[in-house]
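Handout, section B. The chain below has 149 residues.
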Amino acid sequence: MLLRALLAFLLLPGIVAIAVPVIWLDAAGHDHVASVWGFPLLLAGGAGLLWCVRDFFSSGKGTLAPWDPPRQLVSVGLYRYSRNPMYVCVTLILLGWAFTFGEPGLLIYAACVAVAFELRVVFGEEPWLTRTHGDAWRQYAARVPRWLW
């Protein structure tokens, strides 16, 4: 299962939060840091994302991949503060790239990804979680915000 978790990490947030920004910055010719203010966002997002992946693996007995989701509802770690901390962390990473390298296109990309996350959560994940975990999900959703607010 560790291999599946690693593969899911590389394929999903690895592409969205790392590969796309790096390719974007290379194509745009960005080779220097425009501001150090993006580094804390990159670090916080990266650390939080790794923490969430670990919690999915250890507590949820699954991965972040839709084809291998956690078998148990994860409500530990950052999931005590947000029902979707992985998406929050990926968005932080994307904002970190945009601010660090002063690339407005990555800011727009981050906004588009955030909207896609909202749509995926509302129309895909939450109905599935309701069907899969029933009352446990409803109680969790009643006490923990979807995002951080």
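Note. The radius of gyration is 16 Å. Compare this with the example in section A.
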